[in-house]
Amino acid sequence: MATYAEMQEIFDDIRSDFRYDHELNGCLNCGICTATCPSAQFYDYSPREIVQLLWTENVDQIYDAMQEKIWACAQCMTCAARCPFKNSPGGLVAIMREVAIKHGMDSARDVLRPFGRVMLKLITTGNQLSPDMIQPDHFPDWGPNIQKVEGDLKTLRKAIPVKTLQTTATAWEVSLKTSVEMYTIWEMTGVLDALELMDENLFDVIEDFIDEKREEYEDWLEEQEEDDDD
Amino acid sequence: MSDTVLVVGGGPAGLSAAAGISAAGFKAVLVEKEDRLGGAPILSGYAKLVPSGEWAKDAIGRMVEQVEGDANIQVHKSTKVTKLDGDAGNFTATLSNGDTVQVGSVVLATGFTHFDSINKPEWGFGTFPDVLTTTQMEQMVGSGKITCPSDGRVPERVAILLCVGSRDRQIGREWCSKICCTVSANLAMEIKELSPETEVFIYYMDIRTFGLYEDKFYWKSQEEFKVKYVKARIAEVTASDDGRLLVKGEDTLVKRPIVIPFDIVVHAIGMDPNEDNPEIAETFGVGLEKHGYIDKAETYTNTCGTTRKGIYSCGAAYGPETIDDSIAQGKAAGLRAVADLSRA
Ligand SMILES: Cc1cc2nc3c(=O)[nH]c(=O)nc-3n(C[C@H](O)[C@H](O)[C@H](O)COP(=O)(O)OP(=O)(O)OC[C@H]3O[C@@H](n4cnc5c(N)ncnc54)[C@H](O)[C@@H]3O)c2cc1C
Ligand code: SF4
Ligand code: SF4
Ligand code: SF4
């Protein structure tokens, strides 16, 4: 259990985020956000409650909500499109999640662990999901249509009339240049720092991979120049 | 020197102003763009008024009779003012019917425009025939029978949604329309009177039955008519397979999302600035405040003033207002206007 001072510090980090005042104007307590929220239909989660806790600076309950509740949000932003006060409960949850990571909270680590596989895929291929990762048992939320992916994946993919999509180990092809640009974006926006805090081993693997790709890209650039000189 | 005041708009505020000007011994020219006097309560066919309980056609009808029977008041219906020349004490107004009138001062009693529920599509108005506005429901009460427009059945359950077109930044309406809470409590009781077997639910964010309206409408509707108040603003209205309406919201006291079937859903629509206001501002040279209503001068010593000398205003032209207060302000604006005449 955190001390009051620690909980206060976490809240201060949330409210000093540059987006905070834009996402939170006050609250009419009307419940439109919760009524439209898909996650509230299925989980013990209410965007109105999150907004109220932040607005009334209830640091204790904010800390509590960060243990589990905030991870139920699907980040669909329906709430932001509907709130009559133009708040963005989903945007506030995004800030809270980033702060949870920054403080190395266990809840963040637990929730994010299964996504390591996705992260690795993303960094190594530029795709977060590839056709060969889709196994019917893992996607019950896709409904009965999921059965259609069982079959000869290679043949099915070949049937797509777009050449760059006829892949199975990636969803589409990503060029080396695009990958390297993405590494820069992740670095500069703090994604890799967050990863280091959450999963050091994965971070090391990914760092090595990025270094390798960057060298590859440098080599490729040099080759181009040599070609031009000829 | 003119002994006449130009009054624009023949609703409760304008009728009151014109009658007051005449009673003080001066003349009024009343210009109304519609073909009837009476303003929103008559034009939209309101049922029994808050707080008197009198039928609108009787109460406001009396005001219309008083004005139409007054030789000192010249009424132009289906007419607008197209041009205003001159200055305070000495204006010349050109009317759309070709007439010109010499007046010493002007009272703008041009009122409001009802919010058009089409602008809030997720609440089903225009999509489902059993989704109505308070003005339509008032007309249904006036007709003496409560039935679903879709198939004529008597509704088991009616939901009234408050704050439709008010208190909503998503659609640029950052005001409370002031009267719709009380009007809805009143309407709920009227529905119960005509159709005792119908259950009426009111979905609210806050209940603003201010002043003496608290016990007379809010309490009475619960104690005597068993109207149910649910603290929830509705997110969307859809329909189920059997044709009934489904209302989706969060019961913020119970803290869970809810979906409830209804037979009729009523939008308690708000009071927008008069859609003519940009034109009125241009013609009369007066300013509008940030929401689009007529800009009010400081009220303490320049009561009923606008941004222009010699031009006064009153009632819902200034922002959401009740009938009783519009009438009182109409009298006050009339007094300011005749004071200009006697000084000139
Ligand atoms: C559904 C509903 C129910 C209501 N019920 C009640 C109630 O029971 N009790 C209560 O106190 N209040 C009620 N109100 C509020 C009430 O309608 C207003 O308080 C009242 O109508 C204001 O009077 P007004 O004269 O200022 O404006 P209005 O009634 O809007 O009258 C303005 C007049 O000016 C005319 N006009 C507009 N523009 C021009 C122009 N450019 N040139 C010439 N003429 C023009 C209009 O045609 C109209 O006749 C209700 C409101 C709503 C929406
Ligand atoms: S962004 Fe999150 S809180 Fe907002 S509606 Fe979507 S799931 Fe609910
Ligand atoms: S929709 Fe907006 S105003 Fe309404 S409860 Fe949610 S955050 Fe508050
Ligand atoms: S009077 Fe009531 S219903 Fe009307 S806008 Fe204000 S709070 Fe909403």
Question: What is the strand and helix layout of this fold?
Answer:
The complex is a heterodimer of chains A (230) and B (344).
Chain A: H1 4-15, H2 20-23, H3 32-36, H4 38-42, H5 47-55, H6 59-67, H7 78-82, H8 89-102, H9 106-112, H10 116-125, H11 153-158, H12 176-188, H13 191-198, H14 200-229
Helix pairs in contact in A: 1-6, 5-8, 10-14, 12-14, 13-14
Chain B: E1 4-8, H1 12-23, E2 27-31, H2 40-43, H3 56-68, E3 73-76, E4 81-87, E5 90-95, E6 100-103, E7 105-108, E8 112-114, E9 131-133, H4 134-143, E10 157-164, H5 180-194, E11 199-204, H6 213-223, E12 228-231, E13 234-239, E14 245-251, E15 256-262, E16 264-269, E17 271-273, H7 277-284, E18 311-313, H8 323-343
Parallel strand pairs in B: 1-2, 1-7, 2-3, 7-18, 9-16, 10-11, 10-16, 11-12
Antiparallel strand pairs in B: 4-5, 5-6, 8-17, 13-14, 14-15
The structure holds flavin-adenine dinucleotide (FAD) and iron/sulfur cluster (3 copies).
In short, what is this structure?
The complex is a heterodimer of chains A (230) and B (344). In chain A, helix 10 runs parallel beside helix 14 and helix 13 (191-198) packs antiparallel against helix 14 (200-229).
Note the quaternary state here: heterodimer
Number of strands of chain A: 0
Largest sheet of chain B: 5 strands, parallel
Query: What compounds sit in this structure?
Result: flavin-adenine dinucleotide, iron/sulfur cluster
Indicate the structural class of chain A: mainly alpha
> In DSSP terms, counting alpha (H) and pi (I) runs of 4 or more, how many helices of chain B?
8
Level-2 CATH architecture of the largest domain in chain B = 3-Layer(bba) Sandwich
Helix content of chain B: 25-40%
- Which fold does the CATH topology of the largest domain in chain B refer to? FAD/NAD(P)-binding domain
Strand content of chain A: under 5%
Main β-sheet, spatial strand arrangement of chain B: 3-2-1-7-18
Order of helices and strands of chain A: HHHHHHHHHHHHHH
CATH superfamily of the largest domain in chain B: FAD/NAD(P)-binding domain
